[in-house]
Amino acid sequence: MLQTTMPDSVSHDVFQPVPPLQAAARTAFRLLAPSAESSGGAPKNRAILISLALLAAAVCFGLWGMSLNTTSTHAALENLVKVPVLIFASGLASVPFALVLLKLFGPSSGRVSNLLVAYALALLGGSAVLLVASPLVGIYQHSTSSLGMGIAVATAVLGVITMGLLFVRVLRKLSDTSVSLFKSLPPAIVLMVVQLAVLAQLSSVTTPVFNTRTSFGHGIDSNRGEP
Amino acid sequence: VNPLIALSGLGTAAFLCVILLILRHALRRAEMERVEAVLKADEQAWDRAP
Question: What predicted TM-score, i.e. pTM, was given to this entire model?
């Protein structure tokens, strides 16, 4: 007789692959984690990983930006848009620079997607740190005039340092073990430096993100002692 | 509004739109691959069944 229902032995051992979004989140956490183990093979869906990380980072940056300026709703909403725009615009200006350097002077096995995955995950990690610090920033900005600004700037510095460290960590996990880190590191350093340089100039031509303009927000002229 | 900032805003908006399109396409492709893998595994399990 023809069997029409699934046997018990079949229904239990059917292979169930992980849904793509869940797989991307798992990969992101695996690459960002401090464990010394390698990436466990190259990430499969790099496009999903990069896109999700960038979108999540944009949301985190926006929310942190909102907490920076609690003096008015208008300023907070402006920061919700302005902070991600500043970060992404400076990123868009610096990534092509790093990619060309990677192709010209980086290791022969250096993949563009490795650099992009590391950059997107570093942005995500740094923005997550900023997001968890935003309640502290918001409370201090709203309630104290002496410490509020200092704490806001300190979280920004902490975010940049976290981004730099995570960038190196993910790049190290993704890159071929036979390639020296010193060969794959220069494009990453150039990317961070160029992004900070562009960010400083972009900040100088827009309204301040913080309650008052910082020396970084005055651009390169004030840092060189010029008016 | 400073033209540089307006340009940055437009560039970022365009970039996010492209990212969303890439994500949509990649998710569709990954979901299709996942369904294919499930069907293939299911078929193999049926073949192995007594």
Answer: 0.83
